[in-house]
Amino acid sequence: MNLLLTNATLVTMETNDTGYQLKANHFINIINGKIAQIGGMASCPLLSSGKQFDCENKLLTPGFIDCHTHLVFAGNRAHEFEQRLTGVPYQEIARQGGGIMTTVNATRKATEAQLLAKALQHLSGLIKDGVTTVEIKSGYGLDLESELKILRVAKQVEQQAKIKVSTTLLAAHAVPPEFKDSPDRYIDYVCNTIIPAAVDAQLVDYVDVFCEGIGFNLQQTERVFRAALSFGLGIKGHTEQLSNSGGSALAARMGASSVDHIEYLDETGVKALAESGTVATLLPGAFYFLRETQLPPVELLRAYKVPMALATDFNPGTSPIASLLMIMNMGCTLFDLTPEEALRGVTCHAAKALGLAQQRGQIKVGFEADLCLWNIEHPAQLAYEIGTGLLAARIINGGLCND
Ligand code: NIG
Ligand code: FE
């Protein structure tokens, strides 16, 4: 299907640009779902087949990419939210068998249809904010059957909603009760059973590990990454969220596409990211919701030119926030990002975090025609306003969506 967009103001977000580089009065010719031609209206081709859409000089950005979510789960953790507000820490709730395990228990019991209905409900919030690509992690199953169930639901999300999905196996999210006394045996099970089965069923793009005191240690993390790499999968990590345990540097050395959270990352860790080209994914939603005070090393990341992505980390325990625009605002207000950095964080840098830098996250000839049209006068408005209905239209795979 072909689509000709006319009279657009382009915010292309090309990786090597600095500044917004607005291009007013432009057209984009989309052929078979890809950007085929971009130029000034003076050289706009005449429509031979397909549709034409007048952008009325509104701003057009790449479709937004939420590169870290736990979208598929059952139940909620409102009760633990109440507990935390009376002073019980997040780690303490986890140690008492709540936290991630609360959601695992509910998710194991749920059917695929129930999980899908809830995931689509939550996804609608992201879609309203211009998300056209979403990463979805497993990690609330922690056994073969339930981890695969979650990944299958993630694939169904892609079929049912107009969205591109990248899937990540996070079986190493917590030690399930069946392996309570032998976490290393659980890691054997993840490496020898769950990863091969997920690969076999073609359900997985990336493998992730929660490397933390309440998660897995460096040695266990390295074993999971090795198993993933042996199957040709990409790797990424939940690292340095609650302490500095060296998970980011390990992940970077092993070629991770991204390390995520990283509030406790130090300069050695930042250098390791710079050397490996690993993206630093910042998750201000979890920082906000857990009322953390340790800020990620944004100045150092800038100094070492590490690309910073921003994501919702949508999940029931630490970030029940299905709004990427809100997260952009938090990136600026809580982490001191500039609005331009926030926009790069959900476009070109988020694409890199998912290994999609050559296809998505920029308006460029040859890229996928996933785009957003906004009711704004300046790109900084995207990170500045909250809840004002800024999205005018989404274009997915070259087709206009009426969400
Ligand atoms: O990204 N840090 C680990 N995992 C999730 C939260 C898991 C939960 O509490 O349910 C996160 O913050
Ligand atoms: Fe997460």
Account of the protein in words:
The chain is an alpha/beta fold and 403 residues long. The chain folds into 2 domains: 3-62 and 362-401, Urease, subunit C, domain 1 (Roll), CATH 2.30.40.10; 64-353, TIM Barrel, CATH 3.20.20.140. The protein is 36% helix and 22% strand. It has 15 helices and 16 strands. Strands 1, 2, 3, 4, 5, 14, 15 and 16 form an 8-stranded mixed beta sheet that branches. Helix 4 (112-128) crosses helix 5 (144-160) and helix 8 packs parallel to helix 9 (267-276). The longest helix has 18 residues, at 183-200. It is globular. Bound molecules: N-(iminomethyl)-L-glutamic acid (NIG) and fe (iii) ion. Fe (iii) ion binds next to loops.
Give a brief outline of the structure.
Helix content is 36%, strand content 22%. With 403 residues, the protein is of the alpha/beta class. It is globular and about 70 Å long.
What would the keywords be for this entry?
single chain, 403 residues, alpha/beta, 8-stranded mixed sheet, binds N-(iminomethyl)-L-glutamic acid, binds fe (iii) ion
SS-based class: alpha/beta
Radius of gyration: 21 Å
- Average pLDDT level: 97
CATH T-level fold name of the largest domain = TIM Barrel
Number of strands: 16
- The total domain count is 2
- CATH C-level category of the largest domain: Alpha Beta
Give the CATH superfamily of the largest domain: Metal-dependent hydrolases
Largest sheet: 8 strands, mixed
Share of residues in strands = 15-25%
- The dominant shape is globular
CATH architecture of the largest domain: Alpha-Beta Barrel
Q: What are the bound molecules?
A: N-(iminomethyl)-L-glutamic acid, fe (iii) ion
